[in-house]
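Chain and backbone:
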Amino acid sequence: MSDIDGLLYTSFLRNNDPNALEALFNKYRDGLILFIYGFVQNLDEAEELMMDTFAILASGTARYKEKANASFKTWLYAIAKNQALLCLRKRKFIFISPDKEFLNNFEADECLQPVAELLKNERNAHLYRAMKSIDPCYRQALYLLFFENMKPEQISQIIKKNIKQTYNILARGKESLRIAYERTAK
């Protein structure tokens, strides 16, 4: 089964089709901003790193090759993660999640409405708040699982763990998240 987004990207590279890159940008920008924000904790910086990620795609410096076990989305999020980690190395910070004040301001700010749509679902917003108290390794894997609907095989490639380790991280993370979720629900 071919990856439609991967085909769009290769169409952009081969035919210099700006509509293909624009379609990918519109599809992934909001999710990438939230994903990167989880690392850098600065919305402006997250937006800039998302743009850097697409600049890498536009320049063709990172080459996507269709593989049976890796989708375009997995590859794109791996690039975004590398950009965020590079930024953190420069700043010497660790991955942390947003606090309640961020989520409230995020949803209230009209200029951020497209991104706020991702957090509209109350269950997801509550889940996202509960994630701030769990281990960063678990948080990253669970974010990809719950918010980006990635499969464990895709997650293992992004977090650079083998599949068994990824399943263990997800299981432990779910248990930690369940406890944190119950604690924040009270």
